[in-house]
Q: What sequence folds into this?
């Protein structure tokens, strides 16, 4: 046997042994998952991870192996643990699906779990749908989107934020969700780290974990008005950190960051040369002093936008990202592999939708949110008034309250709300969406109040 064969045998042996060890590790992870669930503990435990990370770093120094490789390998293992322990997590989507199947069985449900406006898209959308066939938008198109649509989006962006945005800065995607997925998956590599403030829309974490990227969670609290601590952000950054996610106005809290904090975060981001992914799909629904990340003119920022909420076009699946052309190119490569291009008829319709004045949508949502706030105060939910978006994220002060159990119980009474657990470690919270008409919102909040008092 030649030397190379001998060495290869050893490599095989070590690799198989590593797989065996992974199996052993996974079994223990499962056991820990069950214990955590029984004790009501959260899946991610940053302190515990930090502790293990220090041990790995010490070992790397001791045995002279590159710390970056050691910690990336650890990140892979930690991600696998998270996947194993979060298989049955209940989110707003699980409740939505349950509600839909109850409706199919003939039950009436008030939908206060999803962020889907009940009003229709602008009238021009209907006209555009009729026109689109005759206009000849029936073929394959360009990966990044129709040039005239991208130009129109760039123009709108430039006017709105006083910046110089061009067609090259835009990629059209089937919804902001997909734009988020593209940004995370194409700009980061397995083992890299991303910082997410929780509570958060779950997709940031899901996309990252799916791509082998480690999520560093910075938990914010109601007591601190959902503001992240700058020190915590600084502490969480290491050589593997590549991106920070912002989402203001925020889903689920409705928070808009005070300008000073947002400025400080952008300074940190620039200092460490990180990407900033700013999901700004609720920009139209900001009732406070909100500043787009685009205004910072930072070359490593990616802003996601959508027609889903602003134009009530959730079902059309159309959104876009605004970024430096180099970033857009990277995102386009994956989009080409997965989709070829976004449906041109839908792009055409969205292009026409840009002509519509949607200010009334913001007024409608604001007045609905005010109703939910008033009712939530009456039933003594614990929350801070949202500065924007279309949700109220409220704590239920009740011994042993479990948002998942409660959301499922509410379904029996004809009301769907989202459990806080879907947005992070927030078992005693629920997210109430203000996307229904006044009558339904009042009825829904009354059901909520009654079930809380256990009158029903
Ligand atoms: N970002 C946030 C913060 C959201 O809440 C949602 C939808 N609920 C999306 C993105 C997804 O938007 P789209 O429908 O454009 O995929």
A:
């Amino acid at each position: 046997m030649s030397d190379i064969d001998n060495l290869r045998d050893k490599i095989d042996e070590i690799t198989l042994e590593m797989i065996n060890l992974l199996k052993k590790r996974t079994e223990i992870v499962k056991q820990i998952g069950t214990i955590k669930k029984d004790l009501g503990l959260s899946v991610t435990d940053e302190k515990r991870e930090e502790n293990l990370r220090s041990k790995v770093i010490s070992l790397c120094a001791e045995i002279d192996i590159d710390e970056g490789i050691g910690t990336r390998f650890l990140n892979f293992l930690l991600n696998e643990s998270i996947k194993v322990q979060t298989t049955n997590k209940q989110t707003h989507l699980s409740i939505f699906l349950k509600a839909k199947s109850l409706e199919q069985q003939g039950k009436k449900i008030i939908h206060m779990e999803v962020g889907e406006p009940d009003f229709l898209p602008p009238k021009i959308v209907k006209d555009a749908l009729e026109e689109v066939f005759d206009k000849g938008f029936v073929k394959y198109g360009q990966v990044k989107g129709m040039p005239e649509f991208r130009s129109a989006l760039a123009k709108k962006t430039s006017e709105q934020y006083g910046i110089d945005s061009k067609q090259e800065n835009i990629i059209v995607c089937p919804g902001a969700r997909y734009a988020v997925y593209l940004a995370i998956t194409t700009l980061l590599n397995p083992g890299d780290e991303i910082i997410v403030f929780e509570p958060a829309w779950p997709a940031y974490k899901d996309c990252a974990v799916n791509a082998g990227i480690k999520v560093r969670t910075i938990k914010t609290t109601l007591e601190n008005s959902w503001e992240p601590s700058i020190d915590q952000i600084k502490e969480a950054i290491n050589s593997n950190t590549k991106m920070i996610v912002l989402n203001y106005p925020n889903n689920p809290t409705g928070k808009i960051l005070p300008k000073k904090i947002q400025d400080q975060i952008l300074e940190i981001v620039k200092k460490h040369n990180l990407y900033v992914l700013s999901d700004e799909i609720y920009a139209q629904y900001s009732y406070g002093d909100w500043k787009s990340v685009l205004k910072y003119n930072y070359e490593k920022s990616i802003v996601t936008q959508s027609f889903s909420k602003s134009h009530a076009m959730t079902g059309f699946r159309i959104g876009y990202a605004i970024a430096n052309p180099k970033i857009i190119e990277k995102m386009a490569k994956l989009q080409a592999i997965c989709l070829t291009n976004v449906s041109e008829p839908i792009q055409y319709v969205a292009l026409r939708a840009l002509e519509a004045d949607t200010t009334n949508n913001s007024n409608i949502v604001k007045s609905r949110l005010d109703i939910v706030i008033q009712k939530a105060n009456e039933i003594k939910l614990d929350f801070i008034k949202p500065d924007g978006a279309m949700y109220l994220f409220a704590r239920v002060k009740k011994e042993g309250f479990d948002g998942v159990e409660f959301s499922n119980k509410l379904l029996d009474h004809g009301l769907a709300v989202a459990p806080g657990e879907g947005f992070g470690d927030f078992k005693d919270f629920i997210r109430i969406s203000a996307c229904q008409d006044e009558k339904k919102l009042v009825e829904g909040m009354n059901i909520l109040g009654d079930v809380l008092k256990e009158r029903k």
The first helix runs from residue 3 to 39. Residues 92-119+359-454 form a domain with the Aspartate Aminotransferase, domain 1 fold (CATH 3.90.1150.10).
